[in-house]
Amino acid sequence: MSTLEVSDLTVRFGGNLAVSKVSLSVAGGEIVGLIGPNGAGKTTVFNAVSGVITPTSGKVALAGRDISKLPTYKRARAGLGRTFQRLEVFSSLSVRGNVQVGLEIRKSWSRRGGCDRQYLADGADLSADSEVSLILDRLDLLGLADEIVGALPTGQARLVELGRALAARPSIILLDEPASGLDENETTRFGELLRSLSGAGLGILLVEHDVGLVMEVCDSLHVLDFGTVIASGDADEVRQNAAVVDAYLGAGT
Amino acid sequence: MDKFLQFTVLGLSQAAIFAIAASGLVVTYSTSGIFNFAHGAFGMMAAFTYWQVHVAWDVPTWPAFFLVVFIIAPLFGAFIERVIMRGIEDAPEVVKIVVTVSLMVALLFLAIAIWPQDVAHPVGALVEGGQLEIAGVILPNQRLMIIGVAIAVAIGLWLLLKATRLGVAMRAVVDDRSLLQLNGGRPARTAMMSWAIGAGLAAISGVLLAAEQPPSAITLTFLVVNAYAAAVVGRLRSLPGAFLGAVILGLAVSYTAAYLPSDASIGSFSLSGLPRAVPAIMLFIVIVAQPEARLRAHTTIRTRVVGVPTQRTAAIGALVLVLGTAAIGSMIAGPDLPLVSKALWFGLITVSLVPLTGYAGQVSLAQLTFTGIGALAMAEWGANGSPFAVMLSIGLCALVGAVVALPALRLTGIYLALATASFAIFCTWMVFSQSSLLVGGTVSVPPLSIFGWTADTQFKQLMVTAVAFAIIANILVLLRRSAWGRRLTAMRDSPVACATLGLNLTSTKVGVFALSAAIAGSAGAIAGRSFVSDDFGLTPSLQVTMLAVVGGVGSIGGALLGGLLLGMFPIGSSVFAANAIGVFRFVTVPVTKVITIMPGFMGIGMGRNPDGAASDIARSYRSLIESVPASVVTAIAFAILWISARLEYISNWDFFAGVLVILLAVMPLIGSILPPPGVQVAGRRLAAGLWLVFALLITAVLPWETLVESNGFRILLMLVWAGVVASIAVGVHGAVDLEALGLGTDTAAEIESPDLMGFGTEITRADAQLAARAIGLDGELDRPDTGSTAVTHARSGVEVGST
Ligand SMILES: Nc1ncnc2c1ncn2[C@@H]1O[C@H](COP(=O)(O)OP(=O)(O)OP(=O)(O)O)[C@@H](O)[C@H]1O
Ligand SMILES: [Mg+2]
Q1: Rg (CA), chain A
Q2: I want to staple B297 with a disulfide (CB 3.0 to 4.6 A). Which of B37, B84, B176, B800 is the partner?
Q3: What's the distance, CA B476 to chain centroid?
Q4: In this structure, which topology does domain B311-570 adopt according to CATH?
Q5: pLDDT tier, B803 (very low <50, low <70, confident <90, very high otherwise)
Q6: What is the ipTM of this complex?
């Protein structure tokens, strides 16, 4: 199992300290939540970990290997996947096309280290087509397979991003508000999907404003406020932390 | 030592002019986000306007200078911003590049039309001739004055940006438009001011250069290359960087000119063009030294899903093209054949931009340079016309393309456009000027020869071009339908997502660029005729890119239309050589001049729509179906034409031309111009309608049968004319709103890459404070109750990593 290790990550935008000395780790098979108010720096952590921005300081390691200096695509090849809060779908391709591109890109490079597994399948060997179909099926997207993604509602488009990321077979995945735009029913099913993915061995770092979902699925939580981790622990510990209630959850949660 | 100091002074005075030009470029780019390729053209227009005011109308030196630099040029800049640039602020980079390149080409030919090149336009010195002599170094007043002006400009800009509200707002808008807006700034007005200031600075540099030697339209227009070589040192956004770059460049140019012997060479390779290639070389070095660009996330782009033809359709299309070319070609008289051949040949070059620009969203401004390299290689290696030499030449072009594009492709799209433009200039001075390669300034490419069959007649050459086009079109469709094609689309939609899936963006883009260079090079290798070095210059390359986009670079048919349009202009010039249009009875403009100006203006209009005319025309036919008034009017138009022909008011050829114009230009748009009663559709309907009526009248009165001799050529001319009418009509009207006409949105949907948060990101306290500091409202926001206002805004187009 590979583990994502983030240590002392700091990101400064001009005079604005967006992320300050954040450390956390995500092991395979684990769901770790990262929550906090708007502007706390959650997306910035994701950007720095995936190499989309260069942090001011700090270290990112995956499966023991330091990936802090690698460009984004090499981090992906090392087994790191992600989705985006502000969607980055391939809006002129179909739903199937999006997932297919993810898979085709993965087939065009060779993996260095880390395991190469489709966590949605139970270890079975899959042809490319059946892997795409399997992903669509598990994300409830089969019915929409031929729709152009640009025309889909937010919730579904987020699922497409997840499917596309899974097609690249990451060992750790960063999900940025994946459930916003889903209705209550869909959110429940989505929670079950996350649990089954982690059950199969995928490590998940989850940013989500739906506190119910977060408390439900996460093994542990970190709370971010003004770029600093103000609390860590499991759901109950965090819920009872006064600072967290103050900064984020508010009374009555 | 004296010589050194002397050339240092000369270099510094050149640097001063580059610095003024570069700072204008930086001010507009950083404030409005649009890189103005027409910056040099602005300076050129100012120089000629100064000539007009000072010399032709006898206004004294300084009043004329102030009028041009402080009034006319800024007004012109503001006008351009308001009328052209404001609409494309949020457009994809391709559109921004093509629109300003078109503006550059339009202004260039406009200036040549107004102030003919064969007459010199000396404007005289700005200051008295004298000179200072310090320690044996001669300092001419003129040069001292130029350096003084540059220092004044530097101080003026510094004061503007640091001490005025406008300047502070300009700096803030660089960081974030929407934040500025939120705090009461007005980005639109700021952008307009920045264009006015930019144009003023361009004007100063243009007039200063004109005072040195009589202005040449082309030289001054391409001054922009020097300006951006300097600006790139400051990453296009820093004024001190631009000034530093200008000093390095000025000195480098001056010293190369001073110390390089005029007959310097490496072997038989002459270095005499080196001084003029220095800016291009410097630009390259700076680009190579730049660190890799941050990934850009989320620029709002409008993507329209352009249908990809099936392989079958492509094969049938290819067959139709080849047979049609054979049919029309056999009807065309000998002397006209090369013109037709050339039009189709241009299609081969425009189609080279389909993978690069259409699929991958990158812009090259050097396609004809690659054509030139292909032609030279073929002339060297393939004297017997062997297909093997063709392959070798194409391979060379791919290799050169990859090497040239690699450094720039690590950066954002604008750098590729810059790098290719300087590559074109570099080759003009260093390759296409080699007398060992182009003997007597011409190179003749041997005709293709396969298994003893040689393309030794004009007709055979036409067929070679048609077959080559057909093959390349089919290869492109094949690639487009493969996983590779899908990946390119994905990369255009979201580069950052592709990177997080493990795609190496740079090597993917290099591959596409090499393919594009190879196709452009193949056009040179199979050309089978002679060229002069000007054929491979930057100007024709700019036109190629522009018209490819006008026609519609997203599809092969569109690119072909662009190439044919480009081929039409020489045809038109030869046909209309003797005709002139009288304006207000006292100015007479030869038609040929109008024709040279047209492509630029078409580019400005159509460049806004990267899908081009072809796709709009194709999908717009559907608008006719729904509307009864439109069908009635079309029928009436046909009837009038037919009756006029029957009554012999117009000739049969006029009738035929009229029918073509109705089919290609009127029918696609009429449904939107005259929608069914009660339906609201967008578009400049009145203007488009008037243009169509006007164009039909022109078509009916043009003396088609006396214009040209051969029937085939006449038909072709009519087709192209109808195409021009149609693309102008589409440009005037704007895209047809099929949805409003109740025609669904399936393949024609315009999808806005959505702000799927729905409400944008909330602005945090830190954001508000940053913005407040940036626009000088320090402290005001620190009052407790205002700090927490949660206002939402859409952060579209913010670089993920901007600092
Ligand atoms: N590219 C950038 N340039 C400058 N500042 C930025 C940039 N990206 C983020 N910031 C700032 O960094 C801070 C953290 O933002 P971030 O988007 O990481 O918050 P978040 O926790 O993801 O918030 P949300 O819940 O709204 O998604 C904010 O103050 C934001 O304005
Ligand atoms: Mg966020």
Answers
A1: 17
A2: B800
A3: 23
A4: ABC transporter involved in vitamin B12 uptake, BtuC (1.10.3470)
A5: very low
A6: 0.94
Residue with tokens 């009028």: B67
Tokens of B611: 């899908």
Tell me the pLDDT of chain B averaged across its residues.
Answer: 81
Q: Where are the alpha helices (DSSP H) in A51-153?
A: 72-77, 95-108, 128-138
With contact defined as beta carbons under 8 Å apart, do A102 and A167 qualify?
yes
Q: Are the CB atoms for B431 and B274 separated by under 8 Å?
A: no
Interacting residues of B157 by C-beta distance below 8 A, sequence separation 6+: B23, B27, B239
For residues A146 and B382, give the distance between their C-alpha atoms in angstroms, rounded to a whole number. 49
d(CA B715, CA B699): 13
Structure tokens at B739: 């949805």
**DSSP-assigned beta bridge partners for residue A231:** A223
Tell me the C-alpha distance between B431 and B439, whole Å: 12
Spell out the domains of chain A, with CATH numbers in brackets: 3-249 (3.40.50.300)
A203-207 and A172-176 beta bridge pairing: parallel
Q: Are B486 and A104 inside 8 Å of each other by CB?
A: yes
- Say how far apart CA B676 and CA B463 lie, in whole Å: 46
Which of B171, B292, B491, B501 to mutate: most A Cβ within 10 Å?
A: B501
Looking at chain B, the whole-number percentage of residues with pLDDT higher than 90 is: 31
Q: Which residues line ligand 1 (CB under 6 A)?
A: A 13, 16, 18, 36, 38-44, 85; B 761-762, 764, 766-767, 798, 800-802
Contact B770 A109 (CB under 8 A): no
Nearest CA-CA distance, residue B488 and chain A, Å: 10
When pLDDT is cut at 50, 70 and 90, the band that residue B592 belongs to is: low
Rounded to the nearest angstrom, the gap between the alpha carbon of residue A111 and the centroid of all alpha carbons in its chain is 20
Best residue among A10, A16, A207 to mutate for probing ligand 1's pocket (most ligand atoms within 8 Å of CB) is A16
Atom of ligand 1 at shortest range from CA of A85: 27
Strands A203-207 and A31-35: parallel
Cα B425 to Cα B397, B418, B538, B737: the distances in Å are 17, 11, 6, 42
For residues B552 and B558, give the distance between their C-alpha atoms in angstroms, rounded to a whole number: 4
CA dist., res. A114 & res. B35, Å (int) = 44
The whole-angstrom separation of Cα B503 and Cα B617 is 36
Query: Would you call A38 and B298 a contact, using CB atoms and an 8 Å cutoff?
Result: no
Give me the helix-helix angle, B413-430 and B538-551, nearest 10°: 140
Q: Residue A33: helix, strand or coil by DSSP?
A: strand
Buried b (16+ CB within 10 A) or exposed e, A134-143: bbbebbebee
pLDDT in tens, B126-185: 887 777 777 777 788 888 889 999 999 999 998 888 877 777 777 766 655 555 555 555
- Count the Cβ atoms, other than its own, within 10 Å of residue B222: 25
Best mutation target among B179, B486, B494, B500 (most A Cβ atoms within 10 Å) is B500
C-alpha to C-alpha distance for B224 and B417, rounded to whole angstroms: 13
Place of tokens 């491979």: B536
Instruction: Answer yes or no: is pLDDT of B782 > 60.
Output: no
Contact status of B501 with chain A (Cβ, < 8 Å): yes
Helix pair B2-32, B39-51: axis angle to 10 deg: 110
Contact A214, A33 (CB under 8 A): yes
Atom of ligand 1 nearest to the CA of B798: 1
- Least CB-CB distance to A73: which of B503, B751, B766? B503
